[in-house]
Write a structure and sequence with these properties.
Length: 633
């Protein structure tokens, strides 16, 4: 009995001792760390530490140094002078040592923009400082406050006078070399960047009273310095949240708000917010600039650094190299700072509101297939929208199939493989995703080839999304390209618009790939030859050999491929949508034996029997209009 009681007491005593030791250790941590001071910064405390402070004080990522009675902060490759540390709002204000003396000729020593911090957006390795802070105020429920704006120095080959954003810095700034020096306060948009001007230097300021038309004011703003936030550290320290959540600074209560409130973008309540980012659906990192945001839907080659400056560079490089002009805007080649190339489709006019755009883009971004062009991200700048796609080095299919250049060695085996790839891509859009995606503009220009000539279906500009069980298409306006458009798209009485309309377009494409010429040849005078399929049909029917200009010396194997492609194409371009096979069936037919392929029933190219009159009507429509709009009841 006694033994037991002693044992229990001993255990309790030991537990007490252990608890005390732990408690003292905790207290020691803060008690043994008096605030340090250096020069005018007299209140250096956790998370900050001076180099000579005891090793357990502060956090090593927030180490400051004291040099000649000045507190300095090493930031990337720069060394900045600390002006103030604000513990109540979690910011530190530093100044570039190049501008410290109050003279308008002084220039920042370092090039520093938000892009130097963008790795912090990638979740895992969070930089100790961020350039923006999540805040909650009474007016705005939750927003990301940018802590600075940039002062951008530009060197232009010619004088820029009419743009008042460009402030002449020449009276103050003496650069050794020639050129016209301008400074811009605040961020500029791609459109405002003058041709012939290059960004020489970027430096931040947190002086909000900046008069952006006066260079001396900009210089004064630089002298004030810029703030950076260590809110993330405080959040990690004080909130028991999962590491991917964001806490905010409540400017009314001057407290951290650990609970997560997601912001609205275009009226969409975001599902979840990421660390240092807002994103519609994680894990997409989003890049927010002053009035531009870029959402990366997939990563290419690891880290992608992206910010205002890169964005401008990308746009400027892009404008130099135009890849093409599509129905919904122009496509440019862009190069990201990671070195990867992208294709940027600048949408000329966007239908609907940003809300619709984002939900559409979010769906397209989830589509992954070897034969479908991958959407990498998108940018929104005010009303301007751009889609960023993976870059396809071998251009579009029309350049290859219609090429008269004999040096392009392109046999029918390759054409055949491309046809199968395209069919698989469309089949995936129709049947492989949770939403059925109708393309409505299948044509050679919209089939892109990568460096290994793997075809990818591109341009969903016209694609609308339908729930899979809603078989009746509710869209009211469709566009398309003459020569590929299914007849039901311009004739109400043929049948309803459905995925079979894409099958028709694919059939026309397949026909062109087999014959390597355009179906619609406006130069042919003979009306019976305007439409390619009608005469090639006779060749098949009458079992004549296909004899085309280019087909003289083809092997038996190649003739077989061509015949197979043409028969499949005929199935696809049946007038009645119900007679056309599904794309899955098309893939099967293309891959299967030619002996098993049935010759399709006779077909009429035009609605009802092809009389000269109805031909005439359609022929006029073909030449008069390049796109159709129609209403479907
Ligand atoms: C260091 O700076 C502080 C504040 O500017 C000043 O009071 C102090 O005299 C300076 N010390 C030396 C050694 O210069
Ligand atoms: C110094 O910082 C501590 C917190 O780290 C704060 O409680 C104190 O009020 C600060 N003192 C001054 C003078 O800013
Ligand atoms: C910021 O990034 C730019 C471009 O990568 C680099 O030239 C510059 O030195 C960086 N700034 C600092 C202070 O390290
Ligand atoms: C933080 O506090 C300082 C000093 O009160 C103030 O100048 C600065 O504007 C504040 N910064 C933010 C982001 O609230
Ligand atoms: C500014 O541009 C001019 C020509 O555009 C060039 O000669 C000069 O070297 C550039 N200056 C600097 C500082 O890069
Ligand atoms: C911020 O703090 C104020 C004052 O404590 C409080 O009334 C308000 O609800 C807080 N804001 C949010 C969004 O929680
Ligand atoms: C296709 O792409 C490869 C790799 O980029 C390139 O070497 C080749 O010249 C391209 N071929 C054509 C026909 O453009
Ligand atoms: C196929 O249709 C065309 C046009 O309607 C017609 O002239 C031709 O006789 C038909 N051929 C057969 C075998 O039915």
């Amino acid at each position: 009995m006694v033994m037991w009681r002693e044992m229990v007491l001993l255990v309790m005593f030991l537990l007490f001792v252990v608890q005390q030791i732990c408690a003292t250790h905790e207290r020691e941590k803060t008690m043994d760390c008096p605030t340090s001071s250096c020069g005018k910064i007299t209140n250096i405390s956790r998370p900050f530490r001076l180099k000579r402070d005891p090793i357990h004080c502060g956090d090593s990522r927030y180490e400051l140094d004291c040099e000649n009675n000045v507190t300095v902060l090493y930031l990337f490759s720069g060394k900045y002078h600390v002006q103030a540390i604000n513990y109540h709002n979690f910011t530190i204000r530093v100044v570039d040592p190049g501008v410290e003396e109050p003279s308008c000729s002084s220039l920042p020593r370092y090039f520093l923009s938000k892009s130097n911090f963008t790795d912090a957006y990638h979740g895992h390795a969070v930089a100790p400082y961020l350039t923006s802070q999540y805040q909650i105020s009474d007016e705005l429920s939750n927003y990301e406050k940018s802590l600075w704006k940039h002062i951008i120095y530009l060197n232009c080959s010619h004088p820029v006078s009419e743009k008042n954003k460009y402030v002449n810095a020449a009276p103050c700034v003496k650069w050794q070399s020639k050129g016209h020096i301008y400074a811009i306060g605040g961020d500029i948009t791609a459109a405002e960047l003058e041709v012939g001007c290059g960004v020489k230097l970027v430096s931040p300021t947190s002086w909000w009273g900046l008069d952006e038309s006066s260079y001396t004011d900009m210089n004064r703003a630089l002298l004030y310095g810029f703030e950076m936030s260590w809110l993330q550290f405080a959040c990690d320290d004080q909130c028991q949240e999962s590491p991917y959540d964001v806490c905010s600074f409540n400017t009314s209560s001057l407290n951290l708000q650990c609970a997560l409130l997601c912001p609205d973008i275009f009226g969409i309540r975001l599902v979840r917010c990421g660390r240092g980012i807002w994103s519609q659906l994680l894990p997409y990192p989003a890049y927010f600039l002053e009035n531009v945001f870029f959402i990366l839907l997939g990563t290419i080659q690891g880290n992608l650094r992206f910010d205002a400056i890169d964005y401008f560079d990308m746009m400027v490089n892009g404008f130099k190299e135009k890849l093409g002009e599509g129905g919904y805007g122009s496509v440019f080649k862009g190069k990201l700072s990671s070195g990867s190339c992208v294709a940027i489709k600048m949408l000329s006019k966007t239908k609907g509101r940003g809300h619709d755009f984002i939900s559409e883009v979010a769906t397209i971004g989830r589509i992954h297939h070897q034969n479908v062009v991958q959407l990498i991200g998108f940018c929104v700048e005010g009303s301007k929208h751009a889609l960023v796609y993976e870059f396809m080095s071998n251009g579009s299919l029309d350049k290859i199939i219609f090429s008269k250049d004999k040096s392009i060695e392109f046999g029918y085996d390759k054409i055949y493989n491309i046809a199968i790839g395209v069919a698989r891509g469309i089949a995936y859009l129709h049947h492989g995703c949770e939403m059925q995606i109708l393309h409505f503009d299948i044509k050679p220009h919209n089939i892109l080839l990568d460096d290994k000539f793997i075809p990818k279906v591109s341009d969903f500009g016209l694609a609308k999304l339908y729930p899979i069980d809603n078989s009746i298409v509710t869209m009211t306006t469709v566009g398309g390209t003459i020569g590929y458009m299914a007849p039901e798209l311009f004739y109400k009485n043929i049948g309803r618009i459905s995925y079979k309309s894409d099958v028709y377009s694919f059939g026309m494409l397949l026909m062109e790939m087999a014959s390597r010429r355009k179906n619609l040849n406006s130069h042919v005078e003979h009306s019976s030859q305007i439409y390619f399929p009608s005469w090639i049909y006779d060749y098949i029917r009458e079992e004549k050999d296909i004899e085309m200009e280019e087909m003289g010396d083809f092997t038996e194997e190649e003739k077989k491929i061509v015949k197979k492609m043409i028969i499949v194409a005929f199935w696809c371009i049946q007038m009645n949508p119900d007679d056309r096979p599904s794309m899955n069936k098309v893939v099967e037919m293309l891959e299967g034996d030619i002996e098993k392929l049935e010759i399709p029933p006779n077909f009429s190219l035009y609605p009802y029997d092809a009389t000269e009159n109805s031909k005439q009507t359609i022929a006029t429509e073909f030449t008069c209009s390049s796109s159709y709009s129609l209403e479907i009841d």
